[in-house]
Amino acid sequence: MARQFSAGAGRIFHSITGLFGRSQKPLGQPSATYWGRAWRALRRDRAAMAGLAILALIAFSAVFADLIAPHDPIHVTPGDRLLSPSTTYLLGTDHLGRDILSRILFGARTSLLIVIAVVSLGTPIGTLCGLVAGYLGGTIDTIIMRIMDGFMAFPGLILILAIIAVLGPGLANGILALGILVVPGVTRLVRGNVLAIREELYVEASRAVGAGVWYIVFWVILPGTFPILLVHLTLHSASIILVEAALSFLNLGVPPPTPSWGMMLYDGRSYMSSAPWFVFSPGAIIFLVVLALVLLGDGLGDALDPRRHGVH
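-> structure tokens emitted (312 positions)
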């Protein structure tokens, strides 16, 4: 080990064992072997692979909705209102004569874009707060975590409704509110992980060769948080979809006529007895997507568990 230190930081970064196994990657970064074993473990989990297949199909439908959808999702045809499923309209039509299947496909695009936007907004902020709080500790840690505790003291939906009440309804404000809801959970998760690994040997080695605080935080510790963060975001995406559907149901989310699964449930609430397919179709797709995310998240949690790879 003394020879490695005398050779300089470059050799240490490629020689000291990281958190996730015997890696030749930079310090703290899960190795290709780690990810390969995790993928093989995930493939053996039939429930997780079923969830992944469902999500892949939904994502494919969302991306290529323009090519797959049999009808215009916003075109109103009064003469075809509330038609039952048929060869022309596979899932029937709504109260305005719009094709439900087409609206579900384009609604998948809406949900996918919202999830991506919310995760892209909330995750970097929460990750940064968690890294700073966990590594620096002291007063900074106390201030950051008390702020996060304040957000988590409110029920999630109530907090979102309060933010929208201040900023006004709309897609952008809804995404902002959902993004704020993501931050506290990510912060606590990353902070806990940083507290667990900041005294590991490879972190001490980085300090010993003179690495700066921010280099250690972002290039040594941060990669070690990726697996647990991936599991959390997969599971939390299910909550984002449910909350977005609830906001749209309350007319506080995606504005009409943009297709939204929650808005479809809202429109169909008055026709549950006369046109049950109107409500059943969007409700079924929400259930299916949330179930797929939960199955995949549980499978990822098992596959990415370091103890499965001989790390203790």
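Confidence is low (pLDDT under 50) at residues 1-27.
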